[in-house]
Structures are given as C-alpha cells and as structure tokens.
Amino acid sequence: MPFLDRLLGRKAEDPAAAMDRAGALASAGDYGGALAIWEPLARKGHARARNNIGACFAEGLGVERDYALAHRWIGLAAEARDPVAQRNLASLYFRGEGVEQDDVEAAWRYRLGAENGDAPSQDMLSYMLLEGVGVEQDLVAARRWAERAAAGGVASAMTRLGTLYNDANGVPRDPEKAVSWWRRAAAKGDADAQSYLGAALLVGIGAARDPVEALSWLIRAQNGGSLKAPAYLPTARGAVDAAGMAEAERRAAAPLPGAKA
Do residues 254 and 238 touch, judged by C-beta distance below 8 A? Predict the structure, then answer.
C-alpha cells in the first residue's frame, strides 16, 4: 500500500526492478505471479507491462485466453510506441485473432516495430516484402530488413538471406553466401536452414561435398520439423555406407555449436 509504505519510510520498488522480477517469474512459468506485478504498473501507464498482460491474454498464460482483452492491452502499449507491442498487435492482425484479418494493417504495424529496432518485426516485414503480402513486393527492401533482423540474431532472417542468394532474388546468385547464411541459421536451430544446408552439402553447391555432414543436418532438420528434409533424405542415406550413417546420426544427436549443455 503506497500510504503505508510512505508512513513506514519504505521506498516503492523501482519499475525496472519490478519488471525484471516479473520477467524472472514468467520465465519460470509463474505467469500469475508476473501478472500480479505487471497489473499495477500497467494501470500507471507502463507500456511494456501493458504489452505483457496483452500477450498473456493472447496466449492464455496465467489467464483465460481472451483476444479482445489482448487487443485492448497490446493496443494501449502500441499507442505508446512500444516496439514489442507493435509487433504483437501486427501478429493479431496477421492471424486474425480478436480482429478482422488484415495483411495491410499487419504489414504497417510490423514496419512500425521494425523501424523502432525490433528484430522479429524486421524479420516479418522482410517476409511480407519478399512475398508481396500486405505490401507491394520489394526484393531490395526485403533483403535490407532481413539483414537487419539477422544482425539482431533472428535465425529465420538468416535462412531467408540464404535463399535470396541461392535463388538470385534481388541479388546476384552466390551459392557460397547462401551456404554461409544457412550455416549460421542452422547452428541457431532453424530446421529449414538445416535442410537447405544439408542439400547443399549433399551435392557440393556453395561448399565442398560432404555426404556424412549433409545427412547429419538433414536428420536434424527432420527431427526439428522441417517439411523440406524428407525430399532429400533418401538420396542422402544412399550416399553413405553403414559407418557414415552411424557418424551422421551421432552428429545429428549432438548439441548444436554453442548450445547450452
């Protein structure tokens, strides 16, 4: 209670410290505890707290899923130009959750998040520009936003850059650059990048041919849910002997480079 705190000489918790504490609770799965901290901050106008409450309503985390309330809370945060809220609001429009599905509105809101430095927004804007979803197709801008998202560590943007260079979409074809981007995304766990990398290593395009390494990435990609890996796996399995198969399976089961033990 603020009055009691003043009476007893207690200092109110710093909002940043409170947000850190709530974030730790949410990371541990205690969304109820996190919401109890975010709610009073949100009532006082804290944009990220408002966004986080909305995200909980959108995903049903600690509360019943309610897209109308998600839209309300995230919208309030987006009005305050919170980049994560701008991305989350864009996602609601993109998926038609709690609002009428609207690709144009989604693209505009992803752009707001992207311009405010949100890497996942930059990634989605890149995708929409590449495919012409909600915006006019622009391959140059798609590459530029993918590069910014990749610099922010977004694996799917790295995968997209690889395909742009592999397919010569808005850039000269460069298989070596394609493989370089796919390697980075594959090491971060992107299953489609693992498929593309495996296929490139299988035939020796953009990198030296390496059937065992190719098979290991394709196995990992399939285990990760990539729908592209099954097309290459029969050929990859036929390109190695029993020892190569065992080695590929061993590598596929090992932790990714840099992964936490």
Answer: no
Question: Which own/partner contact pairs does 48-51 have at CB distance under 8 Å and 24+ positions apart?
Answer: 48/19, 48/77, 48/82, 48/84, 48/85, 49/19, 49/22, 50/74, 50/76, 50/77, 50/80, 50/82, 50/85, 51/77, 51/78, 51/82, 51/84, 51/85, 51/88
Q: Does pTM top 0.85 for this prediction?
A: yes
Q: How far, in Å, CA of 110 to CA of 143, rounded? A: 16
Q: Please write the tens of the pLDDT for every residue from 121-163.
A: 999 999 999 999 999 999 999 999 999 999 999 999 999 999 9
